[in-house]
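Retry 2 of 3 after timeout on previous attempt. Resubmitting structure tokens to design endpoint.
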């Protein structure tokens, strides 16, 4: 027992030293993160320091969390050391009578030996006198002494037998107590080591997740993005400086004589202009900016656009450039023209460019007035590369985009499902030792019809969403193939994501090819881990008690519904409890009734829904008594399962951003993963 106390104290010192090392390392990492924040914020590399700083801070937090866990473990070990000392003191008092038995049998044994020697001596003396023919008086006198020695020896034999029996009984009891103490000591020490290992293992997992997040953030931090950020923050503007205007006299289409500036403004209002100055040294360049058309007028305006373009298309020629006009057109304009059999001339050196629009360089004859087509905007995701020029139907009749793309303005329906898994390990009846991990998955469901919309439209509307109520989430792992996010977002309660529409379209197309009969397709969007507060984060609190005797085993499980663990408390359904009992169970009595499977040696309870409206506000007990033929039983793991529809433990939610999509269904549920005692 003395060495057991020494081992406990030494283990305390070991864990304390490990906690000190982790704390020093964590503080060094925190200092390093602060230094990263003080590095140069100039140049294209500056945003990367924010990513490095955030990752380093998270690594420091992981190690500080390990320090906290180790300090809590030290408290548990210290409490065990104190309890161990009290138990040893109590045991010494209980086995004090055993020491008396030891002393008694020792003194009785010595006395017995002396009595035996005296008995032998007196008996031999009496026999010698008889053989030598001594007087009768001497023989009788020797006989009296021999008889007395015999009685004394007989008394010590009986006394020794009693002392021996008491000694063996007390020694057996004491030895059993000592063994129980040592077994309990070893089990407790192993539990401490297990908690220590669990804490270190959880920290390694967290560090691995931070590393993965850092790698993902660095992959998302592209060269183009860094340069663009610098350009946005330090740029002087997006428009080139204009040339110094020359004042000339011009004749506008209504015959008025004006200056150049007056005529060009006039031309903007009338859509027509021509110059009577044919002797300028350089061609005049017109810069035309056309505002978007309101969505509800698109059909009417499209008709006008077609008529205007048909009327003007004949005036476009490939003559040597005397005047250049850049028409700002989108793929919608181009498809609209092709669908209505408006033939575009083949234009050499035409280039495509994505600042959300496509530019066509068209050469115009300066002597012909040209009605300008309206600008119909269409947003394009930055991640899609422009198609090669040879694939574009710039002449002839096109099949055109699908009717949905051109005519329907209805928002496309999608559904979302949040599914969370709660894992808990309850150690006996001590809430402080409960280990909890909660994870979640977010899945989007797309109807079959949306695939046709995506595949027939080269630029589908960008699908973006906001993840809300994220303050309880420790980690968020998005699908890197499909999702983008900004790692520098500072709001702890929300996080924005947007889709790589090209990758999403490809994914859904493959899914439809593999299962063309499906009415919808599910896509795993992201996974996350919920911050837990141990025992208080479990929707169903558990405490188990075992009493294992050679002939019977008594089992009791106390449970309590915990509405505070849920944002919107709901009933726990499909509640089942399963436990394995060994020792050769011959009979089982349980309350409420359980099902015993003799082949698997397992007992199963199936319970009604548990909620605040249940009896005792969702608190209760399961009890069972098992009669054994080969006991005692060994306490084993008790597994519990349940589920809840309509809510989650994290409270996380989604909000669609932008237009083009609507949320048709938002389904939430959580269920048990590994939930045991």
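Retry 2 succeeded. Sequence:
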């Amino acid at each position: 027992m003395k060495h057991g106390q020494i081992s406990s104290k030494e283990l305390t010192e070991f864990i304390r030293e490990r906690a000190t090392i982790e704390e020093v390392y964590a503080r060094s990492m925190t200092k390093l993160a602060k230094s990263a924040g003080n590095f140069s914020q100039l140049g294209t590399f500056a945003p990367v320091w924010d990513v490095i700083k955030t990752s380093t801070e998270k690594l420091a937090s992981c190690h500080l969390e390990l320090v906290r866990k180790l300090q809590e473990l030290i408290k548990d070990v210290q409490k065990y050391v104190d309890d161990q000392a009290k138990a040893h003191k109590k045991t010494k008092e209980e086995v004090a009578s055993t020491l008396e038995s030891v002393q008694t049998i020792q003194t009785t044994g010595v006395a017995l030996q002396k009595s035996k020697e005296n008995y032998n001596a007196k008996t031999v003396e009496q026999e010698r006198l008889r053989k030598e023919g001594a007087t009768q008086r001497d023989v009788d006198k020797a006989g009296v002494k021999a008889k007395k020695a015999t009685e004394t020896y007989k008394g010590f034999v009986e006394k020794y037998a009693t002392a021996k029996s008491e000694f063996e009984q007390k020694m057996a009891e004491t030895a059993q107590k000592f063994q129980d103490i040592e077994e309990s000591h070893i089990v407790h020490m192993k539990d401490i080591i297990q908690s220590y290992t669990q804490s270190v293992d959880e920290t390694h997992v967290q560090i691995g997740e931070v590393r993965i997040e850092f790698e993902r953030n660095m992959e998302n931090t592209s060269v183009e993005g860094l340069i663009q950020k610098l350009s946005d923050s330090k740029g002087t503007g997006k428009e080139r400086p204009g040339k110094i205007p020359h004042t000339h006299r011009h004749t506008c289409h209504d015959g008025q004589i004006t200056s150049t500036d007056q005529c060009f403004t006039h031309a903007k209002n009338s859509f027509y202009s021509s110059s009577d100055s044919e002797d300028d040294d350089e061609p005049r360049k017109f810069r035309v900016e056309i505002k978007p058309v309101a969505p509800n007028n698109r059909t009417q305006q499209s008709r006008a656009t077609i008529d205007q373009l048909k009327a003007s298309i004949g005036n476009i020629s490939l003559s040597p450039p005397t005047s250049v006009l850049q028409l700002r057109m989108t793929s919608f304009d181009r498809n609209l023209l092709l669908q209505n059999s408006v033939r575009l001339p083949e234009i050499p050196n035409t280039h495509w460019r994505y600042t959300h629009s496509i530019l066509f360089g068209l050469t115009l004859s300066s002597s012909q007035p040209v009605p300008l087509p309206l600008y119909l905007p269409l947003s394009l995701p930055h991640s899609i590369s422009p198609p090669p020029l040879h694939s574009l139907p710039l002449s002839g009749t096109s099949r055109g985009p699908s009717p949905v793309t051109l005519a329907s303005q209805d928002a496309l329906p999608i559904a979302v499902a949040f599914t969370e898994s709660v894992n808990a390990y309850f150690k006996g009846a001590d809430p402080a030792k409960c280990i909890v991990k909660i994870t979640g998955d977010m899945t989007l469901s797309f109807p079959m019809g949306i695939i046709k919309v995506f595949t027939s439209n080269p630029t589908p509307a960008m699908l973006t969403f906001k993840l809300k109520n994220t303050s309880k989430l420790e980690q968020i792992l998005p699908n890197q193939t499909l999702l983008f996010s900004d790692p520098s977002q500072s709001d702890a309660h929300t996080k924005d994501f947007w889709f790589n529409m090209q990758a999403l379209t490809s994914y859904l197309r493959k899914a439809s090819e593999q299962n063309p009969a499906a009415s919808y397709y599910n896509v795993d969007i992201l996974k996350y881990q919920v911050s837990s507060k141990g025992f208080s984060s479990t929707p169903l609190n558990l405490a188990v008690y075992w009493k294992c005797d050679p002939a019977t085993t008594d089992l009791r499980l106390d449970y309590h519904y915990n509405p505070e663990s849920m944002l919107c408390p709901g009933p726990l359904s499909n509640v089942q409890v399963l436990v394995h009992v060994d020792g050769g169970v011959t009979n089982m009595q349980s309350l409420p009734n359980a099902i015993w499977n003799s082949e698997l040696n397992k007992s199963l309870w199936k319970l009604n829904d548990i909620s605040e409206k249940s009896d005792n506000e969702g608190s209760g007990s399961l009890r069972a008594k098992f009669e054994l033929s080969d006991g005692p039983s060994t306490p084993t793991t008790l597994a519990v399962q349940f589920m809840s529809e309509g809510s989650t433990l994290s409270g996380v939610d989604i909000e669609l951003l932008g237009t083009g999509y609507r949320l048709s269904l938002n389904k939430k549920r959580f269920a048990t993963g590994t939930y045991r005692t």
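Attempt log closed. The mean pLDDT is 77.
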